[in-house]
């Protein structure tokens, strides 16, 4: 089958890597000539945000999917009109792309998400009291396009663009759950993972699984995933990012309509990975079992603050000596401060051992430049 | 690093698939334009048995390795002279390529292997009594080039080519062990696996791991692997195929200087797979841990006897519904009787469950043509 992917980054690369177990042809579209997928797929250099480019790319594929959500959803809708299968469909991509539509979607389907207002440019309209969160309607990514406004003084930093103004959750834990639905309507949910973010880079740092939650909290999450899967009316794999607040209530922070950093530890930690599940979704195959096999954790390999240029992974030989420790690099030759260059998955027999190993590995390796 | 691979078949494909976790460039050489590696590597169509072709292919690589042993070893020796790293080295490839040299190697290093004579064309020279095994000196592969001569009558079938004449072992079990050695001299051994061959196609059928062996038998195997790893004087990953006879003695049947069908279940069954280990060897990295995580087994997907043409995997949807069951196809579009098209790995919590699942899966799926 000819599978076209909008985006040629690491998520696409790991998707294709896994799917090489099967007999398909992969086509990717990315503006960067050296994108991680460029040498493992039929590669087209081009802008996945451009209507004509996406239309041309997709028209001769059996199915078109995405590995990034900032794509031209109108072109995907037109491909659907022409009979091309698009996974997830253009409607849900558009809904998730725009924070305002995304929030309205949660509200319409009774999915708990922090209270919000819509702001279309001026701070005068805002009724919510401090502190609150501003999320730009479009273009946010990896923590960009999101800021906390704590006081009247902070208001001068307010972005004067269409935004969601959202109440600030008093976060106890950041959780994530990856869910999948195929065209036949079959659904499957991965075990919940817990994230520990690096406050400086605002990129996912450690991610661990499984997380032991009270029955009440697990029930809230199950209710959210069920409502979400019933509401979407589209095949797809989605990462639902959750806040658990200090009073034990679960809120949806946001959803990604694609493979997600918070699912990477599933590569070795679960019976099947998010990448395998996405493949099953794209081909409308029976969904894969997602059980945790053991304790698993993930840490991102992020370009060091001071370094730009040809990448060196300092200390990597020591990491490779550690048992049940799995290095995943993304085929990026150039590092930049904060750039996601790879990740390391770790397996362990207990949570204590897992945290010890993660901390040890993190101290071992540094992403620097020549 | 520029890694060149002689051969572009499924072993190369799975090697590259795994190694996409790292940042290397893969180049493959194969006579078939649609070889399984052709669209996931920089592909050269050409004959890996031709001196000039191999020399040209290898001269600009950082390291050259193999995924099939029937390659031009002289060209590899010349590449070594020119300073190119060859893994495993040309000397051990040549030794293993020629059954006569291979048998003499075992004898010289006190590695138990069935008694043998060298025959250079005529049956008159043979001193060994019936029944015995004839193995052609060169060109044998997947059970081809091997026959049993049971009687004077069978002698008319004797091949009149350079051969090894070997005593026939009264086989209780066929075992296999995959060993690795890197340039630094570090060595690592996978747990022993047991093979159950399909007598008709003479291709590996089920392969299971771990195998519970008496201390005496395990000690014999450990002694063999140690002697072998000490003797080779080359980095490499090798599959040592063993016979356990009915009196409890272990014999080396033959060795492959490469990734091997009997190691496929390591993809999900072991802490790291043979493909990861081969990568570590090729790059001279610390070797990976090889522990069995659980019971694992593998069955080959072989083209049905009656079918030639565009392949269909009948029953595959049912297989995909089974938990802890992993389908690996090789990207071959055309099936032929007996052609290795893929394999399926299965995990289980006990040997009984494993055998049940393997038999069930085998009955579920058929490789047919359109």
UniProtKB/TrEMBL annotation, chains A, B:
It catalyses: 5-amino-1-(5-phospho-beta-D-ribosyl)imidazole + hydrogencarbonate + ATP = 5-carboxyamino-1-(5-phospho-D-ribosyl)imidazole + ADP + phosphate + 2 H(+). GO terms for molecular function: 5-(carboxyamino)imidazole ribonucleotide synthase activity; ATP binding; metal ion binding; phosphoribosylaminoimidazole carboxylase activity. PROSITE patterns: ATP_GRASP. Pathway: Purine metabolism; IMP biosynthesis via de novo pathway; 5-amino-1-(5-phospho-D-ribosyl)imidazole-4-carboxylate from 5-amino-1-(5-phospho-D-ribosyl)imidazole (N5-CAIR route): step 1/2. It holds the Pfam family ATP-grasp. Residues 103-283 form the ATP-grasp domain. One of its GO terms (biological process) is 'de novo' IMP biosynthetic process. ATP binds at residues 99, 135, 166-169, 174, 253-254. Keywords: ATP-binding, Ligase, Nucleotide-binding, Purine biosynthesis. One of its GO terms (cellular component) is cytosol. Its EC number is 6.3.4.18. Catalyzes the ATP-dependent conversion of 5-aminoimidazole ribonucleotide (AIR) and HCO(3)(-) to N5-carboxyaminoimidazole ribonucleotide (N5-CAIR). Catalyzes the ATP-dependent conversion of 5-aminoimidazole ribonucleotide (AIR) and HCO(3)- to N5-carboxyaminoimidazole ribonucleotide (N5-CAIR). Belongs to the PurK/PurT family. This is N5-carboxyaminoimidazole ribonucleotide synthase. It comes from Chryseobacterium soldanellicola. The gene is purK.
């Amino acid at each position: 089958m000819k599978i076209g992917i909008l985006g040629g980054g690491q998520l696409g690369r790991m998707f294709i890597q896994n799917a090489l177990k099967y007999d398909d042809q992969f086509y990717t579209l990315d503006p960067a000539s050296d994108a991680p997928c460029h040498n493992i797929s039929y590669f087209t250099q081009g802008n996945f945000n451009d209507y004509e480019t996406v239309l041309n790319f997709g028209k001769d594929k059996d199915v078109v999917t995405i590995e990034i959500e900032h794509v031209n959803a109108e072109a995907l809708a037109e491909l659907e009109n022409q009979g091309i299968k698009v996974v997830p469909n253009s409607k849900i991509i558009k809904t998730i792309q725009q924070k305002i539509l995304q929030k309205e979607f949660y509200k319409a389907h009774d999915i708990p998400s922090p209270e919000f207002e819509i702001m279309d440019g001026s701070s005068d309209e805002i009724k919510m009291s401090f502190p609150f969160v501003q999320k730009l309607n479009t273009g946010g990514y990896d923590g960009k396009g999101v800021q906390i406004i704590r006081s009247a003084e902070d208001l001068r930093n307010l972005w004067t663009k269409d935004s969601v103004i959202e109440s600030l959750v008093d976060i106890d834990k950041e959780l994530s759950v990856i869910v999948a639905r195929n065209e036949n309507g079959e659904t499957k949910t991965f075990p919940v993972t817990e994230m520990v973010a690096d406050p400086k880079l605002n990129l996912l740092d450690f991610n661990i699984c499984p997380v032991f939650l009270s029955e009440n909290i697990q029930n809230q999450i199950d209710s959210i995933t069920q409502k979400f899967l019933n509401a979407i009316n589209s095949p797809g794999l989605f990462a639902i990012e959750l806040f658990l607040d200090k009073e034990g209530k679960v809120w949806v922070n946001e959803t990604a309509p694609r493979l997600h950093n918070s699912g990477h530890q599933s590569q070795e930690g679960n019976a099947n990975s998010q990448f395998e599940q996405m493949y099953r979704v794209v081909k409308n195959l029976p969904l894969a079992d997602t059980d945790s096999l053991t304790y698993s954790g993930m840490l991102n390999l992020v370009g060091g603050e001071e370094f730009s240029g040809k990448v060196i992974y300092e200390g990597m030989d020591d990491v490779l000596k550690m048992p049940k420790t799995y290095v995943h690099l993304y085929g990026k030759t150039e590092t930049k401060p904060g750039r996601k260059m790879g990740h390391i998955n770790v397996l362990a027999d207990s949570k204590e051992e897992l945290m010890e190993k993660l901390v040890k590995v993190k101290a071992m390796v540094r992403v620097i430049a020549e």
